[in-house]
Amino acid sequence: MAPRHRSRITVRRSGFVTQVPQPLRRRAGDQMAAYDALPAPLRLWLSQAALPWSRASCLRPWRKLRAAGASPEEAPAALDLAESRALCRAISRRNHAA
Fold this sequence. Notes:
By secondary structure, this protein is of the alpha+beta class. It has a domain at 72-98. The chain contains four helices and two strands. The protein has helices at residues 31-36, 40-48, 55-67, 75-97, and strands at 6-13, 16-23. The chain has a two-stranded antiparallel sheet with strand order 1-2. Strand 1 (6-13) and strand 2 form a beta hairpin. The longest helix has 23 residues, at 75-97. The protein is globular and about 40 Å long. The N and C termini lie far apart (31 Å). The mean pLDDT is 78.
C-alpha cells in the first residue's frame, strides 16, 4: 500500500495567502449526493469557505448551532469564526515548526 501524502492547500482570504496542510482521504459513497443533501445555506457557505471542509466536519457544528437556536442566517457567521480559528491554528503550527 502506498504511503498517504499530505497535500497543501493554498488559502487566500482578505489578501492573506498561506498554505495549510490537509490530509488526503478517500471517501466511500456518493459524495455529490451527500453534498446535495446539505441545507442550502450550508452549501452556500461551503462554496465560499477558505478551507476544504468535509461534509461531516461542517455538518457537526451546523447541527449543534441549529439545536442551540441559531437561525440559518446566523449559523454561517459562527462557521466563519470556526474556520478562522482553524486557519490561525494551522498558521501557528507552521510558524512554530519553522
